[in-house]
Write a structure and sequence with these properties.
The complex is a heterodimer of chains A (376) and B (370). Helices cover 34% and strands 18% of the residues of chain A. Chain A has 376 residues and is an alpha/beta fold. The radius of gyration of chain A is 21 Å and the shape is globular. The chains are: A alpha/beta (376), B alpha+beta (370).
Chain lengths: 376, 370
């Protein structure tokens, strides 16, 4: 595939890997967090970690939109879906996320009308094709997907579609990163920044990581060469004792972000005072709800939902995994009671979830090439 | 100048606790599958882990039979010295017609292929139709003709049948069920448990075309493409490979769950590791592009005329030549190798130079593709 295969070129990967080996100090252990689940997926899908030296460790962060949804919100979605008026639409991964009492897949098998869509516009189309039903879109995602939900709502309003509703679970990336940085058990050297979020918000919102917390950030693309290149840029910053926000993903991310997307978001959404994150607890101003101008489309106002906070299962350590405190396999239930086919925690559901990525792709005896050093 | 040398000097990195965690997972994975779901979901029909749990946890134990136990594509039974293969399959594909084929053609080829994969020459089929009230007679006529054409092409006769009609709103137009009988070829020495270290794994053509053709034919993605289903009878390819005698270990039709699921079944049955070289797996640019857009791995996408074969190492080149001489298998390729590690796992050497696990399909990316 043109413009894709170029970023998966094994020879260039080997060159970058060689440069990383030469730059990494052998007496130092580097822990770099990739914030975004898309990077986690890339790292496992292509076996990127195999190309890194043993002392450069990638830690998986909280940026998987499916993984951060708390059980209570899933239960609320199931309650909406059980209303016989409702066609509930959602992305495929959300259907398998367990709530306190089953998942949407199970609710569908029990009779609820739950349909998988690939975009909120598909949900709007279903609403237009079924004027006698309520069509609810279970919206999840960071700033990356929020604009498409917003544009869909703008179109629904313009076309006066009155049977389309959004159950917003959109979240924002900066508050959980700040929460992570404040956490006392944090042991990270640097961050790989979330490229797709940055296409919307730009690089500026991440400066506090460098200035206030002294950790380098490199905003990265999602192909394996992008990730290796970003690791190299981070090691360069650390070697040169620089601490900056750098943009590796220049082919897509403008420094200032996308002002049009900002305007759309500001029209359609407003910040919630607080929102519960799976495993991380309540975080202030970390999520978006529909603004007053779009209240007629707000599923949370139209349906009465339990709205109950459901505590995570005791055995589940998704929170520690999301914070990068433990590795997926260190969780007590990983791979035994909690598997992709019967997940207990959200991290085991989405292919961007750290646990599912490790289980599906990374569950092998890792071997790294021993670098051969020629000293000049 | 410092560089990473592409040597085989590999360091094992996992610490003892991680190795212990991996061993625990391997034990859970190897344990007999239990069916413990409260209801049937679409995932139980997807051909992956949920299907495996349903079949080996609920259905197979009820009929404890040595012929059923291997859970092969067809069961074998010897009658008065004649070794026969018997199989059955239902077809619920939506839409009924798709680029490259239709439900009638699929219903014949699917059953013929299940016979071929156990080394049996297909002889005869039965055809059962469940029709929806209101179905356009022209559609039915076209599908009956498609069945007849496919049967002629596969050199099988349709010798019995049944028709039922259900009320409007059921059966999505029509469901088709075929049962097939074949005679086992005396050259066949096939078993999914016979893979040995060093064996090579082949696929008979480029993968993922049927599933993507169906998915795009549903029109949900507004993607135009030239992808057509690979539906075709596999007996000619199987017949060619049977010339290898016991150097041919096993053949599988890579339908639901795709090549990845077939390889996992073989790795588990033989207690070996299969290493797949991603760069050698044939995928057309159209399928690769559509899969990339939809976030689907072509290794999990269904095929309806593509087989996976495991052969002895020294027979690999001959197997490749035999396949490539068969119409529809000109694009055959050697895609992997069996190693001695008794993991029951499939490992991919990625084209990027790393490694990863490739497990069975979980969930249901493409419902009702056959």
């Amino acid at each position: 595939m043109k413009f894709v295969d170029e970023f998966r070129n094994a020879e260039l990967g080997a060159v970058l890997a060689g440069q990383i080996v030469s730059l990494a100090q052998s007496d130092r252990h580097y822990k770099i967090m990739e914030v975004c689940g898309g990077h986690t997926h890339t790292i496992y899908r292509y076996g990127v970690a195999d190309l890194l030296p043993a002392n450069v460790e990638l830690v998986h962060g909280p940026g998987c939109p499916v993984c951060v949804i708390p059980m209570g919100r899933v239960d609320d979605a199931i309650a909406i879906a059980r209303d016989p008026r409702v066609i509930l639409t959602c992305f495929g991964d959300m259907m398998r996320v367990p709530g306190g009492s089953g998942s949407l897949t199970e609710a569908k098998a029990a009779g609820a009308d739950v349909r998988m869509v690939y975009s909120p516009l598909d949900a709007l189309r279903i609403a237009q094709a079924n004027p006698g039903r309520d069509v609810v879109f279970f919206a999840v995602g960071f700033e990356t997907t929020a604009p498409s939900t917003a544009l869909t709502l703008m179109r629904a309003k313009a076309e006066r579609v009155c049977n389309f509703f959004v159950y917003s679970n959109h979240v924002t990336i900066v508050p959980p990163i700040r929460a992570l940085l404040e956490s006392p058990d944090l042991r990270l050297d640097a961050f790989i920044g979330p490229g797709h979020v940055c296409t919307v918000v730009g690089a500026r919102p991440f400066h506090f990581i460098a200035t206030d917390y002294g950790k380098p950030v490199v905003i990265s693309g999602f192909e394996p060469l992008d990730v290796l290149h970003s690791v190299l840029m981070i090691l360069r910053q650390l070697a040169e004792q620089r601490c900056e926000v750098e943009n590796q993903y220049t082919r897509v991310v403008p420094y200032e972000g996308n002002s049009q997307a900002f305007r759309v978001l500001a029209d359609v959404f407003e910040l919630r005072p607080h929102f519960e994150w799976r495993g991380l607890g309540f975080i202030s101003q970390s999520a978006l709800k529909l603004s007053a101008a779009y209240a007629d489309f707000d599923a949370e106002l139209r349906y009465s939902v339990p709205g109950v906070r459901v505590a995570d299962p005791k055995a589940c350590q998704c929170g520690e995994v999301l914070k990068g405190v433990i590795k997926p396999w260190e969780c007590k239930v990983f791979g035994t009671a909690c598997t992709p086919e019967h997940p207990i925690g959200t991290c085991m559901v989405s292919s961007e979830g750290a646990c599912a990525a490790y289980y599906n792709f990374g569950r092998l005896t890792r071997r790294h090439r021993e670098p051969e050093r020629e000293l000049v | 100048m410092i560089h990473s040398a592409p040597t085989d000097r590999l360091l094992t990195l996992n610490d003892a606790r991680e190795r212990e965690a991996l061993a625990k997972i391997a034990r859970v994975r190897a344990a007999p599958k239990r069916f413990r779901d409260e209801r049937i979901t679409m995932a139980h029909g997807a051909g992956g882990k949920a299907t495996a749990a349903l079949v080996s946890g609920l259905i197979a134990p009820a009929f404890a039979s040595p012929a059923l136990a291997p859970l092969d594509d067809a069961g074998l039974i010897t009658i008065d010295g004649a070794e026969l293969a018997l199989t059955t399959d239902s077809f619920v594909v939506r839409p009924l017609r798709f680029p490259g084929g239709s439900i009638g053609e699929l219903a014949v080829n699917g059953t013929v292929n299940d016979l071929a994969m156990v080394g049996a020459r297909p002889l005869a089929l039965t055809l059962s139709l469940v029709l929806e009230e209101g179905l356009d007679a022209e559609i039915l006529r076209a599908e009956i003709e498609a069945c007849a054409r496919a049967a002629r092409a596969a050199h099988v006769e349709i010798i019995a049948g049944d028709t039922k009609v259900v009320e409007r709103g059921h059966a999505d137009g029509m469901y088709v069920c075929t049962t097939g009988i074949g005679r086992r070829d005396p050259r066949a020495r096939l078993s999914p448990a016979s893979l040995a270290p060093g064996d090579r794994v082949l696929v008979s053509r480029s993968i993922g075309e049927h599933g993507m053709a169906i998915m795009l034919a549903r029109g949900e993605f507004e993607l135009d493409s030239e992808i057509v289903s690979d539906t075709r009878p596999l007996w000619p390819a199987a017949d060619a490979l049977l010339a290898l005698g016991d150097r041919l270990r096993c053949m599988r039709d890579a339908t639901r769950g795709g090549v990845a699921t077939v390889l996992n079944e073989l790795a588990v049955a033989s207690g070996v590791t299969i290493a797949v070289n991603e760069a050698n797996v044939p995928v057309t640019p159209e399928v690769a592009g559509a899969c990339e857009l939809l976030g689907i791995d072509p290794m999990y996408v269904a095929n309806e005329g593509t087989l996976v074969a495991a052969v002895a190492a020294e027979a690999a080149d001959e197997a490749l030549a035999l396949l490539r001489a068969v119409s529809g298998a000109e694009g055959a390729a050697i895609v992997g190798e069996v190693s001695a590690d008794e993991t029951g796992m499939v490992i991919v050497n990625t084209a990027f130079g790393g490694r990863r696990v490739m497990d069975m399909l979980v969930g249901d990316p493409l419902p009702r593709i056959c």
